[in-house]
Amino acid sequence: MPATVMIVDDSQMVRKQVARTLVAAGFAVIEAQDGADALRQLSTAAEAPSLIVLDVNMPNMGGIEFLQSLRGGGQGLAIPPVVMLTTEGDPKLMQEAKSLGAKGWIVKPFRPEMLLAAVQKLTQSATKSAT
Amino acid sequence: MRTLVEQAQYFAEIQEYLVKGSLDLFEGYGLPVKHALGAPSVDISGPSVMAVIGYAATTVRGSLLLLTSRAVVAALQPVELRDEPPTEGVLRDILGEFCNMLIGRMKNRLVSRGVAPLLSTPITIFGDDLKLPVPTSGVSGWQRFSSPAGDIHVRLDATFEVEFELSKDEATAAKLPSEGETVLF
After folding, report:
1. A82 strand-pairing partners
2. A65: burial class by Cβ within 10 Å (0-12, 13-18, 19+)?
């Protein structure tokens, strides 16, 4: 069964680009258009995705707010690793995301091979630590 | 207190970041462009798309605006996603994301000079013969980028507080990740 990655980004273009890269490498993907949508989907999911790819600046609920909510619990699911995918390179934001549990940071526009390498590494690490 | 001359110099530096970022970004998406200074106001005839993102720090606020024809936005769509003719929603999404990537590049350069603005999410407008008023406060500058598909107009608006300044050296620049770079914690 392929590992599932949740892509959270308000841009349909970015979601499609990320999904195409990951599906071609054998991952299953689910998409959410902002943090609130992602939380809704997680609350009804049978199991957590293996990884979340998360934008920072989004309407309704941004990436940092989403991380805060995720750490606050309530979804009843194991918290998957999160990699941020954003145009932001502000060290303060990076530090904030890291302190909230994010495992990586990628600056847009992304290079598919770099994104894939990060996703593979983080999903493998998560699998190892779960076993 | 900064003089108007100093503020104009800062604005010119920020616009240089914007021009460099635009050239890199559009070319990176397969649309090579040539830069020229734009007009103080711009009318785009025919079907157009506009995207705006606001920014604000303690000593400066303003917005970045992209205005172009629908044909140009369609040309900016990544080749691998061109499965079918783009809808209005897709065109809005593409230009909004380009505005986001462009202001992100500008912000990252400002962060390295000691200014870290917060960014809004994009607002997009879809229409015919879009016209824009000249701003009545602050400073504003148009840049025009010509491509085989048509022109892209980029406008930066800024209102500076007297305390605004850009640090002289990009001291933290080396620590900032660049576009496409991955940092694992």
Report:
1. A52
2. middle
- Inter-chain CB proximity A87 and B111 less than 8 Å: no
**Does residue B18 lie within any of the structural domains?**
yes
In a domain, B155, yes or no: yes
Whether the predicted pLDDT of B79 surpasses 90: no
**Predicted ipTM?**
0.87
Domain of B77, CATH number, reads 3.40.1550.10
Separation between Cα atoms, residue B83 and residue B74, nearest integer Å: 12
Among chain B residues, the shortest Cα distance to A11 is held by B93
Q: How many residues in chain B?
A: 185
Instruction: Identify the contact set of chain A against chain B, taking CB-CB distances under 8 A.
Output: 10-14, 16-17, 20, 57-59, 86-92, 94, 98, 102-111, 114-115, 117-118, 121-122
- What ranges do the domains of chain A cover? 4-126
Strand, helix or coil at A29? strand
* A4-126 CATH choice from 2.40.110.10, 3.40.50.2300, 1.25.40.340, 3.40.50.300: 3.40.50.2300
Q: Is B87 on the interface with A (CB under 8 A)?
A: no
Looking at residue A125, its pLDDT comes to 80
Looking at the domain assignment, is residue B70 inside a domain?
yes
Residue B32 resides in a domain = yes
pLDDT at A71: 86
Closest Cα of chain B to A60: distance in Å? 10
Owning domain of residue B133:
4-164
Residues 138-167 of B with CB under 8 A from A: none
Does B109 reach chain A within 8 Å, measured CB to CB?
A: no
In the numeric block, the tokens 């025009």 are attached to B144
**What's the pLDDT tens digit per position in B155-179?**
999 999 999 999 876 665 557 788 8
Query: How many whole angstroms separate alpha carbon A18 and alpha carbon A115?
Result: 8
Specify the pairing of strand A4-8 against strand A51-54: parallel
- In this prediction, residue B137 has a pLDDT band, given cuts at 50, 70 and 90, of confident
Range name among A64-68, B11-15, B125-129, B153-157 with the lowest pLDDT average: B125-129
Please tell me the distance in Å from A97's CA to the nearest CA on chain B: 10
Number of domains composing chain B = 1
